[in-house]
Specification:
By secondary structure, the protein is α+β, with helices and mostly antiparallel strands. It has one domain: Beta Polymerase, domain 2 (2-Layer Sandwich), CATH 3.30.460. The chain is 38% helix and 26% strand. It has four helices and six strands; from the N terminus they run αββαβββααβ. β3 and β4 form a beta hairpin. The N and C termini lie close together (12 Å). 34% of the residues are buried.
Length: 117
Amino acid sequence: MNEISRKMAKLAIEALEDKKAEDIKVIDISEVSVIADYFIIAGGTNRSQIQALADNVDEKLGRAGHPSKQMEGYDTANWILMDFGDVIVHVFDKENRLLYDLERIWRDGQQVDPAEI
């Protein structure tokens, strides 16, 4: 685990908290996958909030010198995926978060308390 990805994750969590994201989960996947070090999963209550969450994460990480490599799902805003390289942020509406259940799919990763990042 490198310190840069940890700082990126912390910034993303702070950005999500600033916009009142629901049920933020952090999964350390560095031991089970090469695609990233962290998955951050959060929920929003409506399209506007979900887009605001994504915008805030994108802005905070971009200002810190970590622009997103790719963003998917922004227009529909039922699942926005933001790829920052070592950190991947998922922002879901309630229905799609239950449907895709990334916490279960990535259960081999280690759940990390967002406050401990």
